[in-house]
Amino acid sequence: MDATELPPPTPEGASKRGYQIGPLDRLTIDVYGFDNITDRELQVDSAGRIAVPMAGSIMVADLTPDEAEQRIATALRERHVREPHVTVNVKESLNQFVTVDGQVTQPGNYPVVNQMTLMRAVAAARGAGEFAKLEDVVVFRTVGNQRMAALYNLGAIRRGYYPDPAIYPKDVVVVGDSPARRLFRDLISTAPLLTAPIILLTRS
After folding, report:
1. How sure is the predictor about 41, in pLDDT bands with cuts at 50, 70 and 90?
2. Predicted TM-score (pTM) of this structure
3. What CATH number matches the domain at 97-201, 3.40.920.10, 3.30.450.40, 3.10.560.10, 3.10.290.10?
4. What pLDDT digit, counting tens, does each position of 87-123 carry?
């Protein structure tokens, strides 16, 4: 495809709100000045609620972490806590995640939070391995019913040749994996320096 970046999964995929908390996500809650709510890990129940000490049962499903912070702070103020400072982080997501595989330090699934990009996704996996091929980073994505793939060069992104692309839930990022690179074997020979990403439509 003649494009500089994979399109979002759906027209709605480019949500400006960022990551939205879902049922069974694991959150870390901090309320400054309260030892019983410091670095406290809570799991969202199947109905989308968490039980926060002093604040009670809070509905957080479909909220961003920032919105959840505001809702918890409001509940604490209603219980006479003055100016609560609340922090909410997603520790584990079962709903919106990217899979990072290949030559990274810690392959696995990572929550897509705070406008995730390719560089951030690799960093979430504790970075590329010592001998990783940074010019061979493939992103797989399903757009509508069409499977797509893009080949990126992390070194080129770092040097500013092209922007750090957005990553969406259910994307698969493969760092330095030769089987994934075979998709691009004919095109790579014509673009050895890779100063722009290469995007392909694959079989649906």
Report:
1. very high
2. 0.66
3. 3.10.560.10
4. 999 888 877 889 999 999 999 988 887 678 999 999 9
Question: 26-92, superfamily in CATH?
Answer: wza like domain (3.30.1950.10)
Q: Which amino acid is at 101?
A: D
Length of the chain: 204
Question: Cα(131)–Cα(153) distance, rounded to whole angstroms?
Answer: 15
The boundaries of every CATH 3.30.1950.10 domain in the chain are 26-92
The closest alpha carbon to 101, from 153, 136, 144, belongs to 136
Q: Which two tokens stand for residue 20?
A: 């939205």
List the 146-152 sheet strands across, edge first: 108-111, 97-102, 172-175, 137-143, 146-152, 198-201
